[in-house]
Specification:
Layout lengths: L11 H17 L6 H9 L4 H38 L12 H63 L5 H15 L4 H6 L3 H10 L5 H19 L1 H39 L7 H8 L12
Helix pairs in contact: 1-3, 2-3, 3-4, 3-9, 4-5, 4-8, 4-9, 5-7
């Protein structure tokens, strides 16, 4: 699901707001990581927590791009409102600037159609947020239950081999492995105890083969949820990618409409933009256009 370098974690927006946002998202799923664990998990593309965060963070990012597109849309509408209120479009066909006024009307009609498409897409974005959120809440509830069961069973196994403070260490070891262990299929085929070995970076004990097998038995339900995660959320990942393309397209199209309309306005012999009002109208447009760019 994740590229070697996460698009979201590497973005400028994420470096500014992402840690807080990620913390809040995990909180909704009743998952709490220490900040150093959270930062590491986000940067690790094969981490379960990274994969869990990627869908809602993508939705947040797409929402920002769509809002920027809407800001451009509103500004373009205001350009046309001021133009129409001036009466410039009502001049006789033979009056100077007729071809420009015709081009302006074509742009206005195209803007109306583009706006309708945008609002339809906005509804699809909200639907994606709701449906993916419902799926992730269900998965994370099952994950949290399985994690607590795994911690309890693992603690018993560790006590039996003489490890002190077994429950605390069991939890730390499992979370460590969930962050750092690459559970992609080729690695598992070559080393079925990969997760156990990653846990032992925290536990630091000598495992016999039968203990390794017992630990894997303790973790079986939890690991099954983790291993099936990608397949269970694949549709939301694809829809998020498609939404990102469309959101960027709307932002570009509304922006390009503004540029074309401004050039047409310059060609009108008598109509001039109210510069003071235009400065007010432009205020929402001072945002980072690179956010979410493809």
């Amino acid at each position: 699901m994740s590229e070697a370098k996460s698009e979201i974690a590497s973005s400028k927006w994420f470096s500014t707001y992402g840690i807080i946002t990620a913390e809040r998202i995990l909180g909704k799923y009743q998952i709490k990581l220490a900040q150093d664990e959270l930062i590491t998990a986000i940067k690790s593309p094969f981490s379960f927590y990274h994969k869990l965060l990627e869908i809602p963070l993508k939705n947040v990012l797409n929402g920002i791009v769509l809002q920027q597109a809407n800001d451009y849309h509103i500004y373009a509408q205001k350009l046309f409102i001021d133009y129409l209120l001036s009466g410039e479009n009502s001049k006789e066909e033979g009056a100077q600037g007729a071809s420009t006024r015709e081009a302006m009307e074509n742009e206005r009609q195209q803007l109306v159609l583009l706006g309708e498409e945008y609002h339809k897409n906005e509804g699809e974005h909200n639907n994606l947020i709701a449906s993916s959120q419902a799926a992730l809440i269900k998965i994370t509830h099952e994950f949290n239950v399985a994690l607590e069961q795994a911690v309890t069973m693992l603690a018993t196994t560790l006590k039996n081999v003489g490890l002190a403070d077994a429950k605390t260490k069991a939890r730390l070891a499992i979370i460590h492995a969930l962050i750092f262990c690459n559970l992609s299929e080729p690695q598992l085929q070559s080393n079925p105890f990969l997760f156990t070995e990653k846990m032992n970076e925290i536990l630091k004990i000598s495992f016999k083969e039968d203990i390794k097998e017992k630990i894997m038995e303790n973790l079986s339900v939890l690991l099954n949820i983790v291993l099936n995660f990608d397949a269970n959320v694949e549709t939301f990942i694809e829809r998020g990618k498609e939404m990102s393309v469309r959101a960027n397209s709307f932002r570009s199209e509304f922006h390009d409409t503004i540029i074309r309309v401004m050039e047409l306005i310059k060609l009108l012999p008598e109509y001039r933009i109210d510069l003071d009002q235009d400065a007010i109208n432009r205020e929402p447009l001072y945002f980072d256009k690179s956010i979410g760019a493809l």
